[in-house]
Amino acid sequence: MPRDPDDRTPPAMPPDAPPSSSAARPRWWLRGWIAVLVGFFSVAGLGLAWRQASTRRAESAAERALMDPVAPDPGMTASEPVSSPSARQVTIGIYLERITALSIRDSRFAVVCDVWFSWTGANFDPVDQLLVVDGTIDAIELLDESHDGDRHYRRYALTAEITKPFRIDHFPLDRHLLLIAFENGSLLRDELVFVPDRVNTAVSSRAAVHGYRLEEHEVVEKPHSYKTSRGEPGISPGAKTTFSQARFGIVIVRDGWGLFLKMFQALFVAVAIALLPCFIRPTHVDPRFGLGVGALFAAVANAYLVDSYVPDTGEFALADMINLLGTVTILLTLVESTLSLHLYDQCDERARSRWLDRASFAVTIVGFTMALALILIGASATR
Fold first, then answer.
1. Gap between the Cα atoms of 124 and 307, Å rounded
2. DSSP 363
3. Domain end marker among 254, 280, 296
4. What local confidence, expressed as pLDDT, does residue 83 receive?
């Protein structure tokens, strides 16, 4: 039958004919999809790396402020300066024996230490009304004392438990300042001032925290004001009361990458599995989509594992960022499989489907690796 001149349908190609050059060229929206992948991994990697680096710097600045005798504590107003020329000067030193417990999820740690006091003048009990700020003294025992005229010395064994809201911005590559602060609850700073014994304050080699290494330590004295008179007679309502606070701080840093690999090895395997369908024919729907869906469930389960390590807070930790990056990456592989199936089955453009699979695989694996590396570099930024 002669062909209708108005019929613009192209002649059928033999099934074994190679694809035309126009069919092999990707459509504009396929290039747009690749641009979406590149944009996502670039923005995610750079943005989350910047956030990790900025919070790391803020964390270091907060640590320095807490151990600076004159700087206000982070988020607090400066303590009122109180002149204390006539105040009793009591030297205080600390020898940290053990860190017996530390729980990031429960926001607490416990210590055993020796604490000594020396002073000149009238004798008194230095642990009478002694407080551990943000904590409790579980046990205290006098180990040694000496008196030479008006010079006095006492040493105690002390066990304390301290509440500390640990920052989890960089967990599991975290570092923390453990702070042990002493105050006399009845004598104001114009009556008693602690003088830190920087020469003899030390940390025992037996002191250790599983999973962390102990780094620098320091002891300082700092005025600490309360925005209340606590109803004390002779003090006007609303007046601040300022006490002398002796602070011992020690920095602990996550030791190695062991916990990191334990937490995320399942996620990394799930991302790798989600990329395998790029080598499976799109019409093989069960493996093509089943692998991605299974990987997505594995990523969600990994997020629950991470949540078991940290307290329920609104902070977005490093672990949450990595989980989110992996989950979105797996979701993108499912979207790519849908696009590839549409090209292969509905549009009968097998060459373009193959091009999309190969290009998406290359961009995704490189983009995920680079984004992860940038985030970890930001999390490891020094002060």
1. 49
2. H
3. 254
4. 66
Segment 51-60 mean pLDDT: 93
Q: How many domains does the chain have?
A: 2
Q: Tell me if 39 sits within 8 A of 367, measured CB to CB.
A: no
Query: What is the distance between the alpha carbons of residues 2 and 5, in angstroms, rounded to a whole number?
Result: 9
Tokens 């695989």 correspond to what residue? 361
Q: Specify whether 249 is located in the same domain as 264.
A: no
Identify residue 306 by its one-letter amino acid code: V
For the segment 195-200, the average pLDDT, to the nearest whole number, is: 96
pLDDT in tens, 258-295: 999 999 999 999 999 999 999 999 999 999 999 999 99
Residue 88 lies in a domain: yes
Check pLDDT > 60 for residue 357: yes
In a domain, 179, yes or no: yes
On whether both 213 and 81 belong to a single domain, the answer is yes
pLDDT of 355 higher than 80 = yes
Long-range CB contact pairs, 252-257, < 8 A, 24+: 252/102, 252/175, 252/176, 252/178, 252/209, 252/212, 252/213, 252/214, 252/215, 253/175, 253/212, 253/213, 253/215, 254/172, 254/173, 254/174, 254/175, 254/211, 254/212, 255/211, 255/212, 255/213
Range of the domain at 295: 26-55+258-379
Look up the pTM and report it.
Answer: 0.84
